[in-house]
Amino acid sequence: MQTPKEIGAIQFGLMDPETYRDMSATKVITADTYDDDGYPIDMGLMDPRLGVIDPGLQCRTCGSHSGSCNGHFGHIELAAPVIHVGFTKLIRRLLRSTCRECGRLSLTDEESEEFRDGLTRTEELGEDWTDVLKSAVRQARKANNCPHCGAPQHDIKHEKPTTYYEVQDVLAGDYSERIASAMQPDEDDEDDAGMAPSTLADQTGIELQRVNQILSGEFRPVGDDRKKLEKALDVDLTEEDMNKLMPSDIRDWFEDIPNEDIVTLGIDPNRARPEWMILTVLPVPPVTARPSITLDNGQRSEDDLTHKLVDIIRINQRFMENREAGAPQLIIEDLWELLQYHVTTFIDNEISGTPPARHRSGRPLKTLSQRLKGKEGRFRGSLSGKRVNFSARTVISPDPTLSLNEVGVPERVAREMTQTMNVTERNLERAQQYVRNGPEGHPGANYVKRPDGRRLKVTEKNCEELADKVEPAWEVNRHLIDGDIVIFNRQPSLHRMSIMAHEVVVMPYKTFRLNTVVCPPYNADFDGDEMNMHALQTEEARAEARVLMRVQEQILSPRFGQNIIGAIQDHISGTYLLTNGNPHFSETQALDLLRATSIDTLPEPAGEEEDGRPYWTGRQLFSELLPDDLNLEFSSSTGDDVVIRDGQLVEGTIDEDAVGAFGGEVVDTLAKVYSKTRSRVFINEVASLAMRAIMHFGFSIGIDDESIPEEANEQVDEAIQSAYDRVQELIEIYEAGELESLPGRTVDETLEMKIMQQLGKARDSAGEIADDHFTDENPAVVMARSGARGSMLNLTQMAGCVGQQAVRGERINRGYEGRTLSHYQREDLSAEAHGFVENSYRGGLTPREFFFHAMGGREGLVDTAVRTSKSGYLQRRLINALSELEAQYDGTVRDTSGTIVQFEFGEDGTSPVKVSSNEKDGIDVENIADRVMDAEFTSDEEKERFLGRREPPTNLSEYAGPGLDKAQSTEVESDD
Amino acid sequence: MVDVSQHTLVPEHTLLEEEEVEEMLDEYDVKRTNLPKIKRTDPAAPDGVETGDVVKIVRDSRTTDTAVTYRLVIE
């Protein structure tokens, strides 16, 4: 394998046509590719000197075979120069800012100097210098005469894409008429008596005879004469004349521009000359860059680039033939333009104003630019993003028996994805066993590599034999086995927790299995989601992944500095049932609850039942999972105060605020105060305990859980009816013209607001009524209270009243003229005509309500769709803007050029995941320092000595502390 | 004209003496041109600053009470 060379720098510039010719393997003159026997034609587009694509053939330039020969450029000598489309703007800029006669920049030396200084300054400041360039061009364009040779300058008109005109003011064809009419007396102005030819002659100083000749059209007054006449008669005698600049003219022009002058225009004369922007020779890409494919029927199909090159060569030849035959200028110009078109589309086939070159089928050709541009282009598609080996993708499904650090990998995947094993004396037997198991058995091996570098495939047939040959220094590509570390990912990868490292557990069946507590960081569910897995291939990668990327290391999210992994959904319902009201459990029950955890002995029972049997409480069992020295106090989302003293839950309900993902207090504290491993153990065990608990109590929900008694229904109806009445009142006040408008609102808006308010209240009171009739054991209530899933609002809508439907934050106002549906009168302002749904989901919606509900629902769907695409693009731009910023060892944040962005990371130099999320107890630095000192030193003496000593600065990076030069003077060795 | 420097939301901008500038550049091992920039015409820039000067800005910070930054004055 070829090792990639290190790239020190990349420079962009233009290439000298001579260089093209020098590096060219051959000149290409024939448009044909292959002869009748299928052999490439010499000096054709498939010339064997341009590289080989057919296996077995030898490259005529370098002698190597296909695969090892990268191909070689050829060239086409263009019959006439053509403009390179990529540089049209720069060409225009140069034409406008340089003299048409002497080629010098139309700026005085002082001005030039100034702009050059401006360029260096902006570059030093690390800013964009296009503004300076633009103002230089603007300044140069202003000059009417060249400040160096004095030649008059003309305006340049650019007709996209590749035509340039010089706009000249020339004497109009009807100059005599214009002069004559100006000499006539003005009919509306009595003072104007006109002008006799003799007066004109006197005023302009032109002889009378000449004036008469001018008037009769025999003499053309040009130059000074014209100006004098214009001045005397106050008339414009010119018209614009467009003089087309041929590419050859432009090339000649550019050749005259001196090197010193182009520096001011931001061009480095060592790397580029303006005339090189006009092509005289066209490089022909090697055949390896445009391989032809042989179809099933034996026919060859050429690459788009080859097709385009064929066109160019054909026109080029026709051009030459015509010119030699002395064809009229018109035909030559047409052919020139055609050549320009083909070269233009060869470079870029998506130029506006030019019809794209098409394939016979009508498909636009994919030429050079199109290969690079866009999402599927070379940069974004092939260089920034690639398809990789050692990866797998399949559907995910849940497995609560796995640890959150693990991932269940199907055996089929494990057999395909391998890890390289360096055979040593110590693992020899295992390695041999893997090989002996073959590629089909698991855990087996797929390949072995001998010390001489030869790779052998392990097959069912040779595995036994091969296993005996394996010895130290061999490499064995063995299957994935339990405990291997792999990277697991779900798209869209929006934050760093979207890619985490898991330990493999090989399992039957075909899906990836993961513990449900890792759903929040991946934002995964099991409705058909698929995820990707990558097997790591080097020891460094595996070590790094294990230390930095393992799920347990990602429990705390840098997004909000609290845990993102924790109990979800049923886990929370489970701990709620276990701890709310502190239920009693018999010994068997208690043991059953704890059986999936590592707790194998029960604590002292909390007390005895009346019949004398000991019992344990739910809080007691939960406390078994806590570390013995944990002390915490906080209020739960259920509404009570949770007190944990010395690792015992004394009081309170464990719900979302205690153990949930997204900032559960207990998990957060464990991760920050104890260790990542301790919190991983805790999360795993809470999940197991909670599942046992929810199964112990039984948890289900059905339609009857949302029904309320008849009298409650009547109360709801009553509440809604009274809201209707109040709305009616409001409407009556409004129609009487007595409604007072709120500040900053019209009367109409005020009415709408007040109606919305009333109806909102109606729904709330319906909810309250429904709420009163639900017991605390109601599963929907349990879920809403504990924060497991759903809210009281959802419950209200199911049992009480769905409420007002809104589109764009207003009542529904669209549909027909003056009304929402044809079922209502026009200008009906009532609640029901504008999308108030008085029924509950359980009771069922009327058809009209259903329609309004669908309108509101559609808006929600559209919103989410629009939001995701918008935020996706926003994130892409943000990432591109911030991608090269880096926190340095000295605490500053700098970009790649060393420009400081922040003097201290985030103003405080702290990582959000290392900061206490409790506002009350900030970081007690003194205390921590004392603790560290106590642990480190036994005697006060040692402590003193340590505190008194000054460590010499270590030079971790060039940004940390003094620079290298200074560091050496203080005799500190840099460690790089 | 409103004097923005008196506004509560505008942090304190002070012109650094050349000596202090050198000290700061030394501390961060940074070239003058690699500092963040501020326009000479910026309403918050202190009176009498010239291109090439360095301005010290002391901001209130939620996490560290005050945060210090330096900016190079440009045209």
TrEMBL record, chain A:
Its cofactor is Mg(2+); Zn(2+). Zn(2+) 2 binds at residues 99, 102, 146, 149. Its EC number is 2.7.7.6. GO terms for molecular function: DNA binding; DNA-directed RNA polymerase activity; magnesium ion binding; zinc ion binding. It comes from the Archaea. Keywords: Cytoplasm, DNA-binding, DNA-directed RNA polymerase, Magnesium, Metal-binding, Nucleotidyltransferase, Transcription, Transferase, Zinc. GO terms for cellular component: cytoplasm; DNA-directed RNA polymerase complex. SMART domains: RPOLA_N (SM00663). Mg(2+) binds at residues 525, 527, 529. It catalyses: RNA(n) + a ribonucleoside 5'-triphosphate = RNA(n+1) + diphosphate. It is found in: Cytoplasm. Its main location: cytoplasm. Binds at least 2 Zn(2+) per subunit. Residues 275-579 form the RNA polymerase N-terminal domain. Residues 967-976 have a biased composition (Polar residues). NCBIfam families: PRK08566.1 (NF006336), RNA_pol_rpoA1 (TIGR02390). DNA-dependent RNA polymerase catalyzes the transcription of DNA into RNA using the four ribonucleoside triphosphates as substrates. DNA-dependent RNA polymerase (RNAP) catalyzes the transcription of DNA into RNA using the four ribonucleoside triphosphates as substrates. Forms the clamp head domain. Belongs to the RNA polymerase beta' chain family. This is DNA-directed RNA polymerase subunit Rpo1N. It comes from Halogeometricum limi.
UniProtKB/TrEMBL annotation, chain B:
It is found in: Cytoplasm. It catalyses: RNA(n) + a ribonucleoside 5'-triphosphate = RNA(n+1) + diphosphate. Its EC number is 2.7.7.6. Residues 2-73 form the RNA polymerase subunit H/Rpb5 C-terminal domain. The keyword Transcription applies. DNA-dependent RNA polymerase (RNAP) catalyzes the transcription of DNA into RNA using the four ribonucleoside triphosphates as substrates. Part of the RNA polymerase complex. This is DNA-directed RNA polymerase subunit Rpo5. It comes from Halogeometricum limi.
